[in-house]
Amino acid sequence: MYVPIKTDNHKKRWSEPQIIIFSFLAILIPAAILLTLPAFSVSGLSFADALFTATSAISVTGLGVVDTGSHFSTSGKVLLMLLMQIGGLGQMTLSAVLLYMFGLRLSLRQQALTKEQLGQDKFTNIRRLVKHIIIFVLICELIGIFFLSLRWVPQMGWEQGLFFAVFHSISAFNNAGFSLFSDGLTRYVDDPLVIITISSLFILGGLGFTVISDIKRNAHRGFHFLSLHSKIMIIATPILLFAGTLMIWLLEHHNSHTLGPLNESGQWLAAFFQSATARTAGFNSVDIGKFTEPTMLVMMLLMLIGAGSTSTGGGIKVSTFVVAILATWSFLKQRDRVVLFKRTISNQTVTKSLAIIVVSGILLTIAMFALMITEKAPFYEVMFETISAFATVGVTAGLTATLSEPGKYIMIVVMIIGRLGPLTLAYMLARPKPTLLRYPEDNVAAG
């Protein structure tokens, strides 16, 4: 909660949302300027395109207005990897890492901000937590590099094959969706080594550091001792993956432009990959623009739900979706509490979940309306692209490559809000002011 504190020069402290947003911009703007330089871009890049690309990388979205593999030099690709890693970890976590590397201590406020970003309580040892996160990230990415190298080093040689493996491993674990192949991963649509390695990376990254830490801490004690949030993620994630895979296969296995040409095992692998990637990863192993409209709707729903809180993914978050569904079910059953696994979910959590959904809906509606004015595109393409940007997914139905300059700036704002969270923006624009004043309750007819 924001509490104004007067200093000697009568200046107010910045609120936590303001610090997060301005630290994000402090990395974004210099990175965009660098991408306009010849050393980073092979054929030059306008500031609008550079800002779009930098935003897409640091927000781990993956939408691109130029081809990543051919347009950027090696330096540009390394910069994109750095931005993806920063975006996946989060600015506050990165700040903690840098300070600890130089033997400095975090201030109490920096510790509080880092804990808030990682979803931890005030008793958490932040130094130990950050250390475990970095180790986990490095282990996952190194394993990904090893398996991807098995495929690409024999095909491309050591230097290029290893570089491709490093780039795609970082992009996958951070749910960024950038690929050095101009056609995404369509050439590997039925290659289990590439598809399973990359999907495993972004599923792990999408679970969230809180869940991974909880599992590590309580693995020997069993499922019962995990936090309620971890239980929700562990159960909801495979359910969403299975439901998405089944729906995509049912709707697309006869489509000659997507899954139709593949054998049965290839069809299921492709359906699984697109179901998983819709949960904010952004890679594609088939041409998304060739999907039927019912499949596009399934993809949009999966994108909107997104990944886990405190993860490298976006969306409204799985736990938010589950809490909203449970709250609706409790209301229909005329229960005054939302209960799951013999635990009561607080009213504050329920209210926050509903607020995230409402604010997200409002922001998406405004963005879609603006894009329908600036772009000449079918409504479903505008809707798909906007949700993809907001949920930091990065899959495209083809609109991003043809965006007008105003459209690019609209999408930049949508990606930033999607990564930082709609409530962060809402808190910044409308600072909560604590008050002891209470008014009498009254009823409003609803429904």
From TrEMBL:
<feature type="transmembrane region" description="Helical">
    <location>
        <begin position="353"/>
        <end position="373"/>
    </location>
</feature>
<dbReference type="GO" id="GO:0005886">
    <property type="term" value="C:plasma membrane"/>
</dbReference>
<feature type="transmembrane region" description="Helical">
    <location>
        <begin position="193"/>
        <end position="212"/>
    </location>
</feature>
<dbReference type="Pfam" id="PF02386">
    <property type="entry name" value="TrkH"/>
</dbReference>
<keyword id="KW-0472">Membrane</keyword>
<feature type="transmembrane region" description="Helical">
    <location>
        <begin position="299"/>
        <end position="332"/>
    </location>
</feature>
<keyword id="KW-0630">Potassium</keyword>
<keyword id="KW-0406">Ion transport</keyword>
<keyword id="KW-1003">Cell membrane</keyword>
<dbReference type="InterPro" id="IPR004772">
    <property type="entry name" value="TrkH"/>
</dbReference>
<keyword id="KW-0633">Potassium transport</keyword>
<feature type="transmembrane region" description="Helical">
    <location>
        <begin position="78"/>
        <end position="102"/>
    </location>
</feature>
<keyword id="KW-1133">Transmembrane helix</keyword>
<dbReference type="InterPro" id="IPR003445">
    <property type="entry name" value="Cat_transpt"/>
</dbReference>
<keyword id="KW-0813">Transport</keyword>
<feature type="transmembrane region" description="Helical">
    <location>
        <begin position="232"/>
        <end position="251"/>
    </location>
</feature>
<feature type="transmembrane region" description="Helical">
    <location>
        <begin position="20"/>
        <end position="40"/>
    </location>
</feature>
<keyword id="KW-0812">Transmembrane</keyword>
<feature type="transmembrane region" description="Helical">
    <location>
        <begin position="409"/>
        <end position="430"/>
    </location>
</feature>
<dbReference type="GO" id="GO:0015379">
    <property type="term" value="F:potassium:chloride symporter activity"/>
</dbReference>
<protein>
    <submittedName>
        <fullName>Trk-type K+ transport system, membrane component</fullName>
    </submittedName>
</protein>
<feature type="transmembrane region" description="Helical">
    <location>
        <begin position="129"/>
        <end position="150"/>
    </location>
</feature>
